């Protein structure tokens, strides 16, 4: 059996997610019910109750895959899309399809640890490309270029980044694609937070998706974060490289067959009303981010952004006077009923990952408790 290390972020979330009163660990934009979406959009969710509940479309329905492809413009179509149980399954499937012993893989760090631990588990030789303060926490092209070896098969990026909230600008994205093309390397871009580009600032344009920039780029995304319906567990892989998609589909036959037909129908409904859902979530993230920034400004002696968030729903908060943030996050959850994920889950001790896309109520009530716990912890240690 190949060794697989524990998935620290998911385990910490699982321990407290349903118990904590205030959730500052959430990565999804405040989740929606079907009733909420009906109210938001004015459109009813219709389910054909006579539909036979069989496996149905193995790769995802034509209607859904067409809707997904349309999110990426006109260059790709339904044949470029494979549906999965969340982006987490697409990521896993992609590594299962592409990498193994003898392959070299480069992955950004910090990021969602699945992106480097699964290639490692499949036997690849994985090097981490550290995102640094000097580079604004986006990939440094010269460093990346110097890391490429004869057997580099795959480069993995995450845009917007979890946990930093940094966004790779278009010019850097294009350079990454050119580098991959020059060395004939696949590029995996986990874009699960797309299109939550709520705070890009005046000099950044909305980044293009990697799958529209490079023929060997594979993008993964889902309905979980920006579309607020993580509970339907529906994600996808999209790429111009049909061979990769065929190979992935073939492997997928062994562990998925198809996703739930009900989930497929709900995803179609949400994507039909995507404009309204995204509009609601951009507004929510903007407002909550501003609230969080005001809180940090007020308590500058204790907290600081590692990177100023530009997109996504999460950021890393430096906890200036506490080094063991794993124990502190446990204390915060146990004693104050507030969930925030320790930076240790991202190889980044001395920080907490804060999710600000959740309800404003969680922030308004959770942040003062974070400050209180911080003061108490410092007084006691
Ligand atoms: C970067 C990243 N990729 C993938 C996932 C998995 O999301 P899902 O399977 O819900 O689409 C997450 C969840 O937090 C994530 O942060």
TrEMBL record:
For the keyword Transcription regulation, the answer is no
| MF (Gene Ontology) | catalytic activity; pyridoxal phosphate binding
Tell whether Nucleotidyltransferase is among the UniProt keywords.
Answer: no
Domain Aminotransferase class I/classII large: from-to ranges: 46-360
Could you tell me the keywords of this UniProt record? Pyridoxal phosphate
Q: Name one Pfam family in it.
A: Aminotran_1_2
InterPro entries, per this entry?
Aminotransferase_I/II_large, NHTrfase_class1_PyrdxlP-BS, PyrdxlP-dep_Trfase, PyrdxlP-dep_Trfase_major, PyrdxlP-dep_Trfase_small
Q: Which family does it belong to?
A: Belongs to the class-I pyridoxal-phosphate-dependent aminotransferase family.
- Name the chain's protein: Aminotransferase class I/classII large domain-containing protein
> Whose protein is this, by species?
Maudiozyma exigua
């Amino acid at each position: 059996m190949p060794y697989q290390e524990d998935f620290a972020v998911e385990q910490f979330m699982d321990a407290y997610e349903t118990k904590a009163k205030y959730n500052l660990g959430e990565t999804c934009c405040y989740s929606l019910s079907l009733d909420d979406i009906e109210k938001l959009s004015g459109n009813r969710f219709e389910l054909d109750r006579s539909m036979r509940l069989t496996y149905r479309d193995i790769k995802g329905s034509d209607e859904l895959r067409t809707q997904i492809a349309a999110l990426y413009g006109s260059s790709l179509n339904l044949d470029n899309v494979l549906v999965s149980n969340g982006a987490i399954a697409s990521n896993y499937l992609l590594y299962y399809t592409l990498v193994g012993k003898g392959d070299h893989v480069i992955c950004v760090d910090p990021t969602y640890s699945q992106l480097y631990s699964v290639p490692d588990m499949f036997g690849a030789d994985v090097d981490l490309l550290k995102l640094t303060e000097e580079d604004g926490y986006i990939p440094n092209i010269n460093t990346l270029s110097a890391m490429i070896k004869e057997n580099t098969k795959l480069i993995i990026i995450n845009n917007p980044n979890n946990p930093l909230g940094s966004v790779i600008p278009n010019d850097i994205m294009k350079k990454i694609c050119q580098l991959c093309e020059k060395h004939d390397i696949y590029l995996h871009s986990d874009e699960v937070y797309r299109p939550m580009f709520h705070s890009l600032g005046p000099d950044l344009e909305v980044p293009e998706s990697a799958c529209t920039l490079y023929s060997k780029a594979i993008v993964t995304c889902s309905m979980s974060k920006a579309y607020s319906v993580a509970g339907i567990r529906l994600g996808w892989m999209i790429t111009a490289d049909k061979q990769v998609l065929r190979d992935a589909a073939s492997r997928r036959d062994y562990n998925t067959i198809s996703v739930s037909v009900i989930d497929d129908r709900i995803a179609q409904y949400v994507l039909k009303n995507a404009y309204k859902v995204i509009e609601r979530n951009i507004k929510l993230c903007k407002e909550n981010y501003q609230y969080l920034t005001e809180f940090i400004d007020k308590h500058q002696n204790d907290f600081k952004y590692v990177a100023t968030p530009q997109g996504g729903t999460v950021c890393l908060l430096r906890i200036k006077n506490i080094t063991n943030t794993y124990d502190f996050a446990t204390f915060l959850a146990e004693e104050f009923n507030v969930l925030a994920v320790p930076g240790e889950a991202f190889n980044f001790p001395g920080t907490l990952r804060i999710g600000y896309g959740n309800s404003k109520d969680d922030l308004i009530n959770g942040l003062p408790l974070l400050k209180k716990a911080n003061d108490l912890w410092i007084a006691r240690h």
